[in-house]
């Protein structure tokens, strides 16, 4: 469904229903441009306001204007600051007896009420200009005012400097969205995605295709939500990504596909959730050690020491950080340690990472398989079973599969993984061999994909970017919750609407399911 | 997640993994443009092919070209027609002894295999030009060939004139997607949506915002899929539309919002599905009657007849179609009858509806409430409980609510409803009165929305278009299944992957649900 929506302050008011059609068409085709790029607004006859709050300057002096916005604050019942998402403007409340009704509206309306005012743009009295405010040279002397909607007592003030708890922000998300930062993040996200679309669609002929989200589980898809259907015992799954569909589109001749896809991963309240790796492993390396006398260094033989000194060209006052243990974990620890060292050095004033730079990095040559953690004699896919082996390692698949490199690639921005992709297997027999013989997966679940590869699948590959994380890095937001309009809490709750919620048994009946309540001992 | 994907025939082959990064960047930034507008392709050093199949003309004579595509058909082991989504081209299989291996590849590859060929563009021998084929003046004399992927025996031929059953098309959807019609529909859809985005985003400052699909049920939301969470007895719902979120965005100051949103309605296998209304009611009016002697006309009194004749200005040979009965049903019947008459007249050669025209129509002044079918003493919303009443009818809400008109509007294209929207209620008290007092709904389910309206909600409204249906009308597709890449069958099945599917009880355990199998008598 394609849906677009507007606040009506950008239209006329008291509109007879018969004119709605014109309103919608008028507003879609002719009304003002709202974007963070501050283009010149354009107005249709259906728009009540003549200007946005943020755009008035000395050049508007003497003009009659109509503004709409939220009341940001009021001073001594004389001044009122009006806000929309183009900025702030000061309006002067009339004090004359003849304007008593206008004064009453503007003085009684609570902060964050929506009002419409008309009046004249005037200079601020000398010495009262506010150079910090883009509209600080002028103010609007109000003649008429209308209260469009009154505001009840707010749970917190809509000011960026007012600190709120995360839970309160999520509960009143629609108020939190009024903050400058959330407005900026969401508007920038929209523009970034639009640029990506223009680039792919308009410049390079990619086709934007929506793939289903009511699907079936994929092998190893333990993180997929299940959806009961009206057929007893039959379930859909919400996919973790359009994984299979993009391959099927390649087989279908949609040779350049892209999608901004919704992905579902059920890990909200997993009891086996891992704590941060730094917490787990850095008590092992309590401090960078400046001599060979720490407990760890004690276990290094004398000849290993001299070997190390030679190899690393260690000199007086150098620091060497060592890890021991299982290869993958040791590497992870060294990675964390490297970041920790950078933090320590930067805290002392050494600039190692310029936050204004976007440093991209490709990671390639991943192994295709890894030994299973619970059973190292068996293999599992390092990424997923559809990744193609490196062409030079093809023969190793049949002799030493654990040595095969994959055609997987990850994209890293400023140290964070923002995306990844792979060249996929397009040969049905190779795919079957990897699934059935090497990974011992049930190929029946993927019979449609194997069949599709057999019907002239072209060689293909692609990439997917984690959009939330990418926008986080670009905006500098501390959490992906700050770049999503309505995020869930880390336990997967919608604190605003309180989803998920209990349902009466009769609503479950059409789906042929019932709740298995845990025994008291488990609850 | 943002995902883009390419068939590798548009890249180089035998690419070492270390070059993947360049490949992806190269192909994203420099390679050919594929669109139905046939812009001039642009090639990077990573692209194997030099031209698309559909673009070669006499102006290319003598050029060395490399083409990739599917084998459309082969004639007498001499000619082979290669297809990509820019068109068809004839290639000449070399017959010389020295080119035996090339001949072998091209003669043995089954139809619909993917091949890459290199050779010279030559003129067809005089008299062998094919004026019906855009590339019909030339052919490509092949020097080298590579089989990129072989094709197994197909369940049906990829030719538009080959008729397939709907079930077979859905089962092998990836093959059906290779048809000209499906390619055209999906590529046009992508371009149309892109134009809508450019218009709203770039020209009018709308912000594209993704809203959640794991939500809670809305009042009257019996058609919403439920998703069990890992908390016992707690469920999410998949929303029928971003209904509430768009209003909350307005409250949040995202003053111009749009989204191409996924909507979920569980009506796939409802046992109470209604048959087409025409079937049900047209046995009552078996034929348009040309005299007053039909059984229906018999029940009209003499004085009513003369009244009718005067009112309708009936003359000799005129046809009057009457319905009687409950107002809404009678109107529906007359509407169907009108279309039926148009069909009859058009069948006799009278052109009433030009299929090349796009005739738009707004429907306004809907009633806000309708009497409940099961209990006509109570009211239900004609559309949904958030629609604002017509401003002139506001007082009737408290006296004669059934007479209140709504600020709802529907958009109709060539007789089909393609969208609708409304001005919403922005006043919390009015919304509460309508929900609790007039509609007797449980307001607790909507407490977050009522609260949000109280915090300075601006007046607002919008519109949503049913994209599938709109694209159907534009492309002339007979069914919305023809404008969706991977549609479900009318019973909600994915015939390709066989979703929904059975899940073992252990996969349901984390969600605290079990299947209630119907008793034998019900099954």
Automatic annotation (TrEMBL), chains A, B:
Pfam families, A to Z: tRNA-synt_2, tRNA_anti-codon
GO biological process, one term: aspartyl-tRNA aminoacylation
Keywords: Aminoacyl-tRNA synthetase, ATP-binding, Ligase, Nucleotide-binding, Protein biosynthesis
SUPFAM superfamilies in alphabetical order: Class II aaRS and biotin synthetases (SSF55681), Nucleic acid-binding proteins (SSF50249)
PROSITE patterns: AA_TRNA_LIGASE_II
Cellular component terms per the entry's GO annotation: mitochondrion
GO molecular function: aspartate-tRNA ligase activity; ATP binding; nucleic acid binding
Keyword Aminoacyl-tRNA synthetase among record annotations: yes
Domain Aminoacyl-transfer RNA synthetases class-II family profile: 186-487
Entries under InterPro entries matching the protein: Aa-tRNA-synt_II (IPR004364), aa-tRNA-synth_II (IPR006195), aa-tRNA-synth_II/BPL/LPL (IPR045864), Asp-tRNA-ligase_1_N (IPR047089), Asp/Asn-tRNA-synth_IIb (IPR002312), GAD-like_sf (IPR004115), NA-bd_OB-fold (IPR012340), NA-bd_OB_tRNA (IPR004365)
Protein's UniProt keywords contain NAD: no
UniProt record similarity statement: Belongs to the class-II aminoacyl-tRNA synthetase family. Type 1 subfamily.
Name this polypeptide is given: Aspartate--tRNA ligase, mitochondrial isoform X4
């Amino acid at each position: 469904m394609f849906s677009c929506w507007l606040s009506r302050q950008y239209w006329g008011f008291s509109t007879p229903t018969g004119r709605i059609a014109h309103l919608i068409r008028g507003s879609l085709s002719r009304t003002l441009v709202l974007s963070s790029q501050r283009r010149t607004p354009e107005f249709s006859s259906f728009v009540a306001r003549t200007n946005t709050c943020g755009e008035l300057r000395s050049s508007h002096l003497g003009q009659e204007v109509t503004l709409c916005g939220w009341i940001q604050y009021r001073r001594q019942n004389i001044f009122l600051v009006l806000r929309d998402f183009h900025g702030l403007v000061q309006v002067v409340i009339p004090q004359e007896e003849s304007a008593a009704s206008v004064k009453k509206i503007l003085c009684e309306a609570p902060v964050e009420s929506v009002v419409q005012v008309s009046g004249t743009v005037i200079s601020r009295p000398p010495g009262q200009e506010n150079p910090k405010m883009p509209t600080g040279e002028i103010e609007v002397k109000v003649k008429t005012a209308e209260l469009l909607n009154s505001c009840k007592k707010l749970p917190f003030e809509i000011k960026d400097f007012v600190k709120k708890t995360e839970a309160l922000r999520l509960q009143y998300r629609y108020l939190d969205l009024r903050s400058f930062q959330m407005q900026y993040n969401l508007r920038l996200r929209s523009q970034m995605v639009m640029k990506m679309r223009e680039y792919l669609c308009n410049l390079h002929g990619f086709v934007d295709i929506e793939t289903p989200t009511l699907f079936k589980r994929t092998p190893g898809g333990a993180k997929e939500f299940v959806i009961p259907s009206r057929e007893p015992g039959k379930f859909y799954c919400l996919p973790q990504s359009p994984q299979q569909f993009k391959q099927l589109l390649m087989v279908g001749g949609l040779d350049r596909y892209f999608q901004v896809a919704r992905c579902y991963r059920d890990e909200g309240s997993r009891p086996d959730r891992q704590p941060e790796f730094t917490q787990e492993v850095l008590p092992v390396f309590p401090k960078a050690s400046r001599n060979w006398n720490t407990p760890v260094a004690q276990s290094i033989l004398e000849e290993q020491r001299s070997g190390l000194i030679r190899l690393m060209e260690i000199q007086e006052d150098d620091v060497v950080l060592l890890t021991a243990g299982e290869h993958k974990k040791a590497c992870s620890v060294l990675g964390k340690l490297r970041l920790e060292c950078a933090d320590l050095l930067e805290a002392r004033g050494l600039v190692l990472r310029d936050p204004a730079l976007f440093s991209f990095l490709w990671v390639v040559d991943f192994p295709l398989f890894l030994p299973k953690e619970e059973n190292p004699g068996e293999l599992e896919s390092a990424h997923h079973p559809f990744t193609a082996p490196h062409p030079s390692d093809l023969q190793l698949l049949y002799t030493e599969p654990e040595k095969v490199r994959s055609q997987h690639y990850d994209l890293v921005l400023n140290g964070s993984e923002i995306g990844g992709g792979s060249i996929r297997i397009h040969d049905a027999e190779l795919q079957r061999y990897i699934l059935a013989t090497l990974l011992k997966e049930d190929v029946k679940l993927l019979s449609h994909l194997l069949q599709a590869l057999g019907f002239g699948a072209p060689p293909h590959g692609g990439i997917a970017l984690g959009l939330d994380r990418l926008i986080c890095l670009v905006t500098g937001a501390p959490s992906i919750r700050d770049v999503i309009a309505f995020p869930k809490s880390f336990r997967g709750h919608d604190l605003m609407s309180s989803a998920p919620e209990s349902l009466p048994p009769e609503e479950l009946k059409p789906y042929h399911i019932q709740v298995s309540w845990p025994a008291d001992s488990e609850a």
